[in-house]
## 1
Amino acid sequence: MKFEHPISIAPMMDRTDRHFRYLMRLITSRTLLYTEMVTANAILHGDKPRHLNFHSSEHPISLQLGGDSPDAMAEAAQIGEEWGYDEVNINVGCPSDRVKNGNFGACLMAQPELVASLVREMKNRVSIPVTVKHRIGIDEIDSYDHMKRFVEIVAESGADRFSVHARKAWLQGLSPKENREIPPLRYSEVWKLKEELPHLVVEINGGVRTIEDIQEHLEHVDAVMIGRAAYDNPWLFSDVDSLFYSQETEKISAPDLIQKMVEYTRVEVEQGERLPAITRHLLHLFHGLPGARVWRRHLSENSHLPGQRAELIQDAFDMMREKAQALVAD
């Protein structure tokens, strides 16, 4: 049976905030979206609206949580469900020092029984799916057998999906950025995991950049998660609904998308949001298209100036189109 969410956009710190998710929802109505990682303690003791608010159009949306306390994670998951999230996801993949020092993220791959207890307590408190995003391995704990054992132990607690970043993580010596690039991709091991544990829902993540990549992976696993390629080239998702969800809806045009983003931004700025907080997510919107450099420059050089309004987005788009027409004429 085809999985409900075959395509998702990975949770990315400083990337997948509510403004970026709103943009992506204009391009694809079906792709599963994720929040940035939020710690359980931030939800329990911090500014809940700031961490949890999202636009009603963003469904389906998953709340990614970080933490190592079963009670705190379960309580945060319950709050997330009450806030309206469609699922909660446990971060067992981030290798940053800050996350490691808090004893969550990728270092938890060395503690599968603890991750299983997190899932178990969260499942006891919520009715929405509880999923796990993890690495293929960490440090010297990086064999296929290690990963399979981790998944089998956590699966016993009822995890609803395993999203596997097909790179190991070095917790010492590599930065988070280097951990996204240096360790080699080992797709075949994720494919093997699904083959040997066919009853589990397995999603693959890491280095997926094209529609052709997605199609190849879906021959072997249930779902594909795209990270940096989604941020660097948002229009990649313009065909996702029709290709992978059999949804024959008309794709939004660039002028209509810009109009909706201007309207959205106007409301957000009137409510106190800073314009650059939104426009920074638009810089790569027209990746590879004629005039894209004009678009990026106008937004990046002017968004921070005093008195700028949402109409700056429309101005940048108009300038880009003029440049593109001039290039064609030449």
Note: The chain has a mean pLDDT of 94.
## 2
Amino acid sequence: MECERGQTKWQFRQKSSFTAGNLAVRAVVNKVMENVDNSNGKPIIALGNGDPSKFSCFRISERAEDAIVSAVRSAKYNGYAFSAGMPCARSAIAEYLNKDLPYKLSPDDVYATIGCSQAIEILLSVLARPGANILLPRPGYPYYEARAALSKLEVRHFNLVPERGWEVDLDNVYALADENTVAMVIINPGNPCGNVLSYPHLKKVR
């Protein structure tokens, strides 16, 4: 697009190689599902699908559905919500988490986000500072790398060991971490491997 006044030209144009699918992990999952052999008649459940309503075995409870409908019909929550989440929702989250914690959370300790992507954006933006680095698992969820690059955080990858159920390679972590390491990402249950780390192993990681 070019402006009509003077000599200045606007460079509003799309990068020729860019498509939304290039950035989506979902595109890879969909490609895998397209190539699955359905001829044996066995039902297939796509574990990469995050929509609980798509498969009947993952349906949310009617109580949860009714709560959503009731909230919409009440008109009490119309308009912009608090950036950190509605106070009543944060209180409920804190109360739920406190059942399994040795310490107590208050609603002020809770920051509700619209999905994991926003949570990653906020956390990495808070952690970013000149010279800082972050430890990410390999293999892992690729969005961390993208957001770290945007926040100018140096990424250092520690390995997960497949022969030990994708446990963290602790020696690898010790070799990578230094005084500028601001965080280490643990995805549990693992994505994309689906592993669940044991409590004893998590204590060693901590």
Note: The helical segments are 25-34, 62-74, 87-97, 116-127, 143-150, 170-176, 199-205.
